[in-house]
Amino acid sequence: MANLSNVKLNDGLQVPVLGYGTGTALYQKEAKDSVKMAYSEAHMHHIDCAEMYANEESVGQAIKELGVKRDDVFLTTKCGSADPRKSLEKSLKLLGVDQVDLYLIHSPELVKETGLGKSWQIMEELQKEGKTKSIGVSNYRVSDLEEVLKVAKVVPSVNQIEVHPYVYSKAQSLLDFCHSKGIHIESYGPLSTLIRAPGGPVDPVVKNIAQELGATEGQVLLKWAHQITHGGIVLTTSSKKERLEEQIKAFTEIKDLSDEQVQAIAEAGKQKLHRVFMQHMDS
């Protein structure tokens, strides 16, 4: 199987375009076996964690048992408290590493007490100290990012947000804003129209495109999330090797959607709003 390509962030860091998420299905559950399978059998070397998922220790055990070099795993985790420094130090200990590749503030709601500007300055300090290679945010709206950018010496490299056709109408202005500032989008929940809201207006459009491309509907939705975010990073998860291999092939074997296909899915998605996570994003 061909290797996944990388996405180059605004600080030069290279990130595998497809990442293995340890939230959702693995939320607050043992993740060791799933991470080992994803890495060694499906060859997914980008692992996305979070303090909030309460399974970082088992991810760390997986990395240790795999016996791979630290540089051979791209490791992301996210701050789950009002104190990014305290959270990262805890995460590093649980993961059994000295440094993560990418550290994100999981939500602006978590750092309201600290302040969006102040919490970002702490993130910059953590990067300077070498505890993380790159720093970014998650679930930040345009107004949140504007507040961060008022004080930022380092522009966030990433904004990790829910991306699928049924949130596109709400996300469009945020995607454009991030693109204009050089902030890459990491999409989570890209298969939500298929898994969590089946039977909607997007389904027949995606099915037709899948037939045209010789792809699965899941592969079409992964490609759509990547392309609608200007070549962003996409997160997915599965406990099945075959499903992960199918998802990887979306980026190694399936050709890009045409502009018309991308827009057809976007237009169908505008007929319905179905947000699964982080309801503040609609405010």
From TrEMBL:
Q: Where does substrate bind?
A: H106
GO molecular function per UniProt: oxidoreductase activity, acting on NAD(P)H as acceptor; oxidoreductase activity, acting on the CH-OH group of donors, NAD or NADP as acceptor
The reply on keyword Oxidoreductase is: yes
Catalytic residues in the record = Y53
CDD domains on file:
AKR_AKR3C2-3
Question: What Pfam families does this protein's entry cite?
Answer: Aldo_ket_red
- Which InterPro entries does the entry link to? AKR, AKR3C2/3, Aldo/ket_reductase_CS, NAD(P)_OxRdtase_dom_sf, NADP_OxRdtase_dom
- What is the name attached to this protein's record? NADP-dependent oxidoreductase domain-containing protein
Name the site position(s) for Lowers pKa of active site Tyr: K78
Does the keyword field hold NADP?
yes
Residue ranges constituting the NADP-dependent oxidoreductase domain according to the UniProt record: 24-268
Which UniProt keywords are given for this protein, alphabetically ordered? NADP, Oxidoreductase
Question: So what family is this one in?
Answer: Belongs to the aldo/keto reductase family.
